[in-house]
Amino acid sequence: MLIQLKDLILQREARTILGGVNLSIAEGEHWVILGRNGSGKTTLLEMMTGYMFPTSGTIDLLGNRYGECDVREVRKQIGYISQSMVEKLTLRDPVWEVVATGEYAFLRFYQEIDPAVREKALALLNEVGLAHTAEQPLGTLSQGERKKVLLARALMSDPRILIMDEPCAGLDLYEREKLLADLGRLSERDIAVIYVTHHMEEIISMFTHVAIVREGVIASAGPKRDVLTDEILSRAYDWPVAVEWSHGRPWIRATASGGEQG
Ligand SMILES: Nc1ncnc2c1ncn2[C@@H]1O[C@H](COP(=O)(O)OP(=O)(O)OP(=O)(O)O)[C@@H](O)[C@H]1O
């Protein structure tokens, strides 16, 4: 098992944020996590990355149990892409340096960079189609390009697991499709992807499984075709919806209009 979450409970003050989460992610699977705002998706990712600890329950990642191992060592095998990550990067740093820092666990360099690390950063930039931006300050790149830089950065340490929290948020259709294409190519690598989104159409064919979080518990989890049904999704979103599959991707349609009167 790559990741095993058992009976995770997280209590803050009087609130139960996670109410007993169980989830197993095996080798060769790529998961999407769906759920309404505030259902607990980001909290789950923060637990998997060891940035938050549960009130009770266990988290095993690549055979390491959090609380009984050096979390920093485990984290080296995880690439994590989130909005808070973007905000921590320095916009005036050259793009290749931003990518290269992914080799280490820190955000900026204060010493000479190993030429081999630079070469690797440039190769990864090339893979995401951004080789030409290597010397530009990060701040001169579009939002979509910045997300690709983050993807390249996350791959620097050759992680076994890549965790992404809404990487396509704020991207236009073109930028989104380009990022998803880069992501799709990851299935050639030995890397498991865990991906949080609000947008069903981002569930590209590489994804094998879906988990739905609802009010701090897993409402449904399994192979994507079993989970992405009209019934399960209508319950998950508290709204009548219908799913259609096109080019191997699910598309969701609200079957009652929020704009209709009375
Ligand atoms: N440190 C905290 N203290 C108290 N409540 C918290 C804390 N962290 C998260 N929460 C609450 O836990 C719930 C789950 O938050 P989380 O960010 O995991 O949701 P989410 O599913 O990622 O939401 P979104 O889709 O809006 O990003 C929210 O109601 C949030 O307000």
Automatic annotation (TrEMBL):
Chaperone is among the record's keywords: no
Keyword Nucleotide-binding assigned: yes
Occurrences of domain ABC transporter (ranges): 3-240
GO molecular function, one term: ATP hydrolysis activity
Superkingdom of source: Bacteria
InterPro entries on file: AAA+_ATPase, ABC_transporter-like_ATP-bd, ABC_transporter-like_CS, Metal_Ion_Import_ABC, P-loop_NTPase
Keywords: ATP-binding, Nucleotide-binding, Transport
Annotated Pfam families: ABC_tran
Name this protein carries in UniProt: Iron complex transport system ATP-binding protein
Species assigned in the record: Paenibacillus methanolicus
